[in-house]
């Protein structure tokens, strides 16, 4: 795929990130096969469940909510990559051989899902603070850009 097309798909992921419902991070992802978007996602609460702003990022029953969110992050939102994969699965759309375009490089959990789903290439705008996900993808032979 050309650099020009890559930049267009990254721009689509960036626009999708604005739909995210977690105020800690706005991340968008789009799955592409043969030059076509087949699925997309953004970070936020699972359908029908409270948004992060409504339940303190999943820490509402913790004594020190602010400290928990700061140290451990959000445990409420589903990541953009996982949402894109889940939607494809629900619709019966194969992700084998796809490229993922995402605004922030995947975490280790999402990277495991991407490998299992047959993603062959990942392109991102910004690197996630923990490189464990990128290390897993590289170990699995996924092309990284």
Q: How would you sum up this structure, described in words?
A:
The protein has 145 residues and is an alpha/beta fold. It has five helices and five strands; from the N terminus they run αββααβαβαβ. It has helices at residues 3-17, 65-72, 80-91, 108-116, 132-139; strands at 28-33, 36-42, 99-104, 121-126, 143-144. Strands 2-1-3-4-5 form a five-stranded mixed β-sheet, sandwiched between helices. Helix 4 links the parallel strand 3 and strand 4 (121-126). Helix 4 runs parallel beside helix 5 (132-139).
Strand residue content:
15-25%
**Could you describe the largest sheet, including whether it forms a barrel?**
5 strands, mixed
Q: How are strands sequenced across the largest beta sheet?
A: 2-1-3-4-5
Residue runs with pLDDT of under 50 for 5 or more positions: none
Summing up helix and strand content along with how strands pair, one would put the structural category as alpha/beta
The H-and-E topology, N to C, reads as HEEHHEHEHE
The overall pLDDT average reads 92
Number of discrete helical segments = 5
Secondary-structure topology with pairs:
Layout: H1 3-17, E1 28-33, E2 36-42, H2 65-72, H3 80-91, E3 99-104, H4 108-116, E4 121-126, H5 132-139, E5 143-144
Parallel strand pairs: 3-4, 4-5
Antiparallel strand pairs: 1-2, 1-3
Helix pairs in contact: 4-5
